[in-house]
Amino acid sequence: DKDLSDNNQLFSEEGNSFAAGAGFAFESQLTTGLEVSSFNSASFFGSDDRADLSETKWYLGYRINLSDRFRIVPALGISRWKLRLKEGAFEFASDAKAGTYRDTDFYGQLNLEFPI
To answer: How far is Cα 25 from Cα 83, in angstroms, rounded to an integer?
Structure first.
């Protein structure tokens, strides 16, 4: 998008991503789920900067029926992620240095459920 460019050069980002998830709703209205995702970039501005991000998330939620056809599901979860940066021609000026970064974070989400 030219609006995201510098000096009228097009911003080009190439890469692959994958995501998969599965969940289960118990009769007690509890829900649980597991999600796995990854993203691999090929280049930023053609400078051979690469970033690989992988994440595994697990959550536990509770379904609250507001009507027969609509419910909300607040959930709490934990996310384990790993980010690998390869320094290229563009990345060297950044504060983010090449290497592998890992962490575990807690998160909350609110899902809305309704039939289509």
So the answer is: 31
Sign of CA dihedral 77, 53, 36, 16: positive
The one-character DSSP state at 89 is T
Q: What is the rounded CA–CA span in Å between residue 77 and residue 94?
A: 31
pLDDT tens digits along 42-80: 665 556 667 788 999 999 999 999 998 999 999 999 999
CB 4 within 8 A of CB 11: yes
- Could you give the angle at the alpha carbon of 7 between the alpha carbons of 42 and 97, nearest 5°? 45
110: β partners: 74
CA triplet 57, 37, 35: central angle to 5 degrees?
35
Q: Which amino acid is at 93?
A: A
Count of C-beta atoms within a 10 Å radius of residue 20: 9
Q: What is the pLDDT of residues 78-105, one digit of tens each?
A: 999 998 887 665 555 555 567 788 999 9
Q: Give the residue among 49, 102, 61, 110 at the shortest CA–CA distance from 79.
A: 102
| Start-end of H helices in 9-115 | none
